[in-house]
Every structure is written in structure tokens, then in C-alpha cells.
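Run: sequence + succinic acid -> complex structure.
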Amino acid sequence: MSNTHLEIIPTSGALGAELHGINLAQPLSRDTAQEIRGALAEHGVIFFRDQNITPEQHIAFAESLAPVNINRFFKHADGYAQISEVRKEPDQNKNIGGAWHTDHSYDQVPALGSILLARDVPPRGGDTLFASMWQAYDALSPGLQKTLEGMRAVHSSRHVFGPEARRERNMGDRLVNAEQATQDAAHPVVIRHPENGRKILYVNRTFTTHFEGWSVEDSKPLLEYLYAHGARAEFQTRFQWKPGSIAIWDNRSTWHLAVNDYHGERRLMHRITLEGTPISGVH
Ligand code: SIN
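>> structure
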């Protein structure tokens, strides 16, 4: 299949689109890569089917979209530092990414997004949910929007990837470099999308610890309100995986959650993360 015509089919009223008419095993023209980046910014998460590509083709595809981020905390696929394994074996209970989150919000410059490729999927279950944080922002009342626009929040890697968390979470060999989990970053609570200018609610349950200048305890009620609000069904889309399916999410404007409903089955995904650019608030 040549990459001449992209068909874009939205997957929900809030976000997400399936892209058809493309073969990611082939090198992408600059125009096609730009069209894919445009669809990603517009829809927040985009999906491809039946892309049985090699690790080298996965890396080449990622590099045609943006520079690749080498993940510090996930085990890499053998021989490929660029590819992180998102894996759950039949005898494991906990999955990776099972609560709503935005990857790398603990970094000073959070990732642009990730390209997740299904290698081995359970016969049923193991879907991924995505939620639109521009829809979540737009649905807040104007007074709360204005208040949040003047606030910043602190995000951390320590309580998720650090040594203590590693012991408690019992993730086996799937996570590495616990001692390197020293990143904290403060970001505006409302950011502007660097490509389309949309206002986005930028806190997430997994990595945000508190509002800057507020204690953890004081921050909790408002953060809990925002987490419940952001997880409303009308802001979501849900993706069912088959081997060769790919999802690419815009990490600035969406949350995602890997549903852990396939105990006793194996699920192996290959993830490549794309480097981001500095994010900024709305003022
Ligand atoms: C992730 O959170 O990066 C993984 C999502 C998934 O496994 O569906």
C-alpha cells in the first residue's frame, strides 16, 4: 500500500480518530508525517490497524514524527534502547499505567506523546481509555477556569518509580533505575497547546502531588474534584487492541489508562516516546 491518501475517522464525540490508508512499514514523506502530526494535535489520540512492523520500522516511524526519548524507568525491548516494554505476564496482577495519567509530567519538558504498538494481546480485555483534557477544561465553569489559570502544580516521579514505590508496587523486572527517580517539575495547571493553542487542564492522578504554594493536604480536595471531572465518560474514547494495532497519543492534551481486566493472560506492548517542547501557561 502506498501512503497517498489518509482517511480520518473520529472514534468518539470527544477525541480520537482512526487513520486508514497508510502503511507504516514504508518510509513516510514529509507531507504524510506532517498530516499525521496534524491529526494527532487535532484529535488528541490517533489509531492505526494491522501495522505488523519490525522494531526498526517502529523506530523509523517515530523518528519521522519527532526525536525519540529514551525512557529511564521501563525495561527496554532486547537490543532496542528506544523501545520500552509495557508488559504483564499471566502470573502478574498489576499492570503498567492502570490509573489515569499523562506520561512524563514530572519532567521539566514533558514528552510530546507516545507510539504504542500491540505485540501480544489477551483474547479479550486490556483496552486503553483516553480522555480529552481540552474538553475537560472547556466544561469547567468560567470562575474555576480563571482560578486554575493562575495556578501551578508540582508533579513527581519519586512516588511512582522510586525505590519505595518499587517495593510496594511489586512490579518485578518491568521497571528499572529506581534510584534515578528524582524528577520533580512545576507546570501551569492550565497550559496552551503548542500547536493549536487550545487551553488544556494539565494535572493528572498518577504524577501530580500538589498545587505550588499549597500543602498536599490542602491540594487534595480540588485535585480530586479535577480528577473526577476529567474522567467523565463524555470526555473519553476507548481502544480495543489487536496485534499490529497502534495508538499515538498527544501527551500534553490527553490522559490515558490501561484497563487491567485480563488476569491470567499475557499482554506485551512496545512503546516509543517522543520528545516534547517546553510547555507554557495561558498568560
Ligand atoms: C502506558 O500507560 O503507557 C501504557 C498504556 C497501555 O498499556 O495501554
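>> summary
Residues 86, 96-97, 103, 114, 116, 128, 256, 258, 269, 271 surround succinic acid (CB under 6 Å). Residues 7-274 form a domain with the Double-stranded beta-helix fold (CATH 3.60.130.10).
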